[in-house]
Amino acid sequence: MSSSLNKRLESWFWQWAKRRTLPQTSVVLRHRAIYVLPSKAGLGFFIAVILLWLLGTNYENNLVLAASFFLISLFVVTIVHGFRNLIGLELTALASEPVFAGEQLIMPVRIKAKGRTSAGRLILASDTERSVLTDVAEGDETQIELSLPTSQRGWHTPERILVKSYYPLGLVRAWSWVRFDVRLLVYPRPMSVALADRLSDSDEGKKKLALTHGDDFEGFKRYQPGAALTHIAWKLYARGAGLHTKQFASPEQDDLWLDFRALSGDRETRLSGLCYLALQWHKAGRVFGLRLPKQRIEPASGREHLAHVLRALALFEITPKSATKAERGAR
User: Fold this and answer.
1) Which residues of the chain have pLDDT under 50?
2) What are the E-state strand segments in 94-140?
3) Among 21, 28, 161, which Cα is nearest to 105's?
4) What is the CB-side half-sphere exposure of residue 108 using CA atoms within 13 A?
5) Fewest CB atoms within 10 Å of the CB: 23, 165, 172, 175?
6) What are the residue ranges of helices labelled H in 200-266?
7) pLDDT of residue 53
8) Contact at 8 Å (CB) between 91 and 110?
9) Which distant-in-sequence residues (6+ apart) come within 8 Å of 34 by Cβ?
């Protein structure tokens, strides 16, 4: 019951705070976006001080009253220092490498304390992932990496990043929510998929989705460091002939295509299958192209070509509006 109430209060507070912050690539924490409340330890401290004050008042003990007033003053001072620890910090979202759906997306964030004092014991976290603890020296900057969960292909935009601190004594919690105006690319989840029934036995289907290596055995070659262990001729090695690798004849690479229509399943299943084949063919050094409805990438090879193909698969039939709705639905 209490956890459900806490979630409702947090959701309501976030909707209110959301109107006070605008998405930006680089965010400077201002007083309007910083909130300070007692921590659990702070609440216990405050209750203890009140009890101490009541004790001193009841017994008219000036020493106990002086101690309670000193502790209350200390509590007020920690509120000011907790607020000053965050104000003026500049946070910038940096470029990140694309990942596959289901993997953790690593987003680098640069934190600057330019023109202000140092910031201690900063805690940054996404909505659901574990936090990162860091310090920033006076006039310096630091860079941390946030881990973001992904569930769907396309553009991923983190809804909010929590920046908080219990500086200096852990009695207060100062925090702010940062909204970054960034779009991080997520590729489809690689998955082996069967050929469509109408193409599985046809020459056209085999031509569009060829094997990742040749089927015809060609001979043996002396082992070279880095060769795949699955290609080593272990029987020859057992007979004392040394390490050799099996060589296969390469199939014809003409008209080798990743074709959306050649796979079975729904749209996302087909895209996952094409992603899997693209990775396999790239690993084997194959030359291949991509055919999607209303889009075509000519056959080529190399890292840049692979990135071009994976990007096309990730953004297939994705628009900014649909991407936003998909991300909201994933949450």
Assistant:
1) 197-207, 210-215, 251-253, 322-331
2) 99-100, 104-112, 119-125, 132-136
3) 161
4) 8
5) 23
6) 203-208, 234-238
7) 94
8) yes
9) 83, 86, 87, 174, 175, 176
